[in-house]
Specification:
The protein is mainly α. The protein is built from seven helices and no strands. It is found in: Cell membrane.
């Protein structure tokens, strides 16, 4: 079993704060586009930034990461301030999509690594990585009453799954931690970037796809 202390490295600390900042910004921007108050914007930044990591820590029976680290809440507040004082048009287009993709895959790597370090078996550890990367955005969309990206046939969860799987596989094979984390993040981000650039998506379910017509 990996020791919990193994994840307390500068590389994963950076991935952690990067994921928090990107997801917090996406939450704050959603509140800004809805013309909400600054308090609401800060709340959305917090729940989006820490949502996935909180669920992960509760599931793996670890101390909730942001409760004991004042920097996490501070970063969420700073991103809310940035969103408050900048026009939303600055963040329109695909720039925020790419940033979100980087946060998604970085968080997936962090979640999978942390789960392994707490003795979680490989498959559940991969799922913890996916949860860490995706749940914050799901909570944001549910609270805002918006359709979640998970309900679209985009390569989103797939990118998180790729990063988490490569991370777990590399760590179990004994590859150097920074190499494993870097490759896993880059691979997932590349897949997500390709999906954004070329509208790649998984095939969606269609009623009657096997020739069975409705009502038959």
């Amino acid at each position: 079993m990996l020791e919990p202390a193994i994840i307390l490295t500068p590389v994963l600390d950076i991935l952690d704060l990067l994921g928090v900042a990107i997801f917090a910004l996406s939450g704050a921007l959603l509140a800004a586009k809805e013309r909400q108050t600054f308090v609401t914007m800060a709340f959305f930044a917090l729940i989006t930034g820490v949502g996935g990591g909180t669920v992960r820590d509760l599931l793996v029976d670890a101390p909730v990461f942001w409760v004991s680290d004042a920097w996490v809440a501070a970063i969420c507040l700073i991103t809310a301030i940035i969103a408050w004082f900048t026009p939303t048009r600055w963040w329109d287009g695909k720039l925020m999509d790419f940033a979100d993709g980087l946060g998604l895959t970085a968080y997936a790597v962090l979640g999978a690594s942390k789960a392994l370090s707490y003795g979680i078996p490989p498959i559940p550890a991969i799922l913890m990585g996916i949860i860490t990367g995706c749940i914050g955005g799901v909570i944001r969309d549910v609270v805002a009453g918006k359709p979640s990206i998970l309900m679209k046939p985009e390569l989103y969860v797939t990118a998180a799954a790729l990063s988490a799987s490569l991370c777990v596989g590399g760590l179990l094979l004994g590859l150097p931690n920074p190499v494993t984390w870097g490759i896993a993040t880059a691979a997932g981000f590349s897949l997500r970037s390709a999906a954004i650039s070329w509208n790649l998506a998984l095939p969606s379910y269609r009623e009657g796809q096997d020739g069975i017509q409705e009502g038959e």
